[in-house]
Amino acid sequence: MEAVEFLKGALEIPSPSGSERLVAQYLVHGMERLGLKAWVDEAENARGVWGHGPLQIVLLGHIDTVAGVVPVRVEGEKLFGRGSVDAKGPFVSFVLATAGLPEDLKSQITVHLVGATEEEAPSSKGARYVADKLEPHYVVIGEPSGWQGITLGYKGRLLVKVRRQKDHFHSAHHEPNAAEELISYFTSIKAWVEAMNVGQGAFHQIQYTLRDFRIEPAELEQVAEMFFDLRLPPRLQPEDAVRHLLAYAPPTIDLVFSGREVPYVGPKDTPLTRAMRLGIRQAGGTPVFKYKTGTCDMNVLAPHWSAPMIAYGPGDSTLDHTPYEHVEIPEFLKAIEALRTALVQLSRSGVPAGANVDKRR
């Protein structure tokens, strides 16, 4: 099946964050073969454009992956491979949905396809590059929601690097060493988070993950570092979290904050969600709204684009980053069908009332 072979080819090209050029070139070649104008841009995004109408729709999904090899293979109705779910599968479904649109819609809509780079890295290079270059009326972010799922929200994020450096002393001394000071700080943050989470559902809880902890061999000085991240619900913005973390920190430790992504929750009832629900129903499914506890390019772009935005794509997100990552082929094909129907429906609705029709193309 040509659709499956196209995705399989993308999965066979390794593309960990920062090394996406080869897969971007492959996707551009595929888009050109399907009749789209396509190119690799300065951020090494795989870009495509279909149509020339006033209604501007952006379909953006990332083409980088986390490290690790999942051998590409088809087993029954399952296609295995790193990125099959997160998120080459969703982006390829975007391409195929767009390429199959009726030709007579070209004068009504312009579909911008962005296979974005470095989403799995804190940089989100690809999304940030296009943030001020496109002005969409509607946005779909390529992330696994299951073909019947429509994701309305993602948590925000804050990355925290903590360092303690102090004069070395004999281990018989009663003073806590550098590593113990960091452990005490992390324990206090853990207690704060757990107190904040009392009575809150999963999407509204703060999540914490200790990513790294290291101790340098001590000679004249002790040096300890740790790295953790927080996933932030809508009630806690990154700058508010920073204030809390600084308040709990003793003056002897150094903190560096990065990866400040705001939480995002979109409305349930927009022309985009209605079109997507129609597409899912016409493909034989039952639409369901979802809220994700992770972070994606939706968080990066929401502050720049005021357009209605959802995340959508085939695949089970619990398989993200796992050794068993795979997409069900029937689901992949259903997602293409549902999204294509949604795009047709949006084209018929026209440019939203009050929107600027001179959007950049």
Question: In words, what does this structure look like?
Answer:
- The strands form 4 sheets. This protein has a 6-stranded mixed sheet with strand order 1-2-6-3-7-15.
- The model is unreliable at 357-361 (pLDDT under 50).
- It is elongated, with a radius of gyration of 22 Å.
- It is built from 9 helices and 16 strands.
- The protein folds into 2 domains: 2-154 and 263-349, 3-Layer(aba) Sandwich (Aminopeptidase); 156-261, Alpha-Beta Plaits, CATH 3.30.70.
- Helix 1 runs antiparallel to helix 2 (21-33).
- The protein has 361 residues and is an alpha/beta fold.
- It has helices at 2-11, 21-33, 88-99, 125-130, 178-196, 238-248, 271-282, 297-301, 329-349; strands at 37-40, 46-50, 55-62, 73-75, 78-80, 109-116, 138-142, 149-154, 156-167, 207-216, 221-232, 254-261, 264-265, 288-292, 309-312, 326-328.
- Its EC number is 3.5.1.130.
- It catalyses: [amino-group carrier protein]-C-terminal-gamma-(L-lysyl)-L-glutamate + H2O = [amino-group carrier protein]-C-terminal-L-glutamate + L-lysine.
- Belongs to the peptidase M20A family. LysK subfamily.
- InterPro entries: LysK, Peptidase_M20, Peptidase_M20A.
- One of its GO terms (molecular function) is cobalt ion binding.
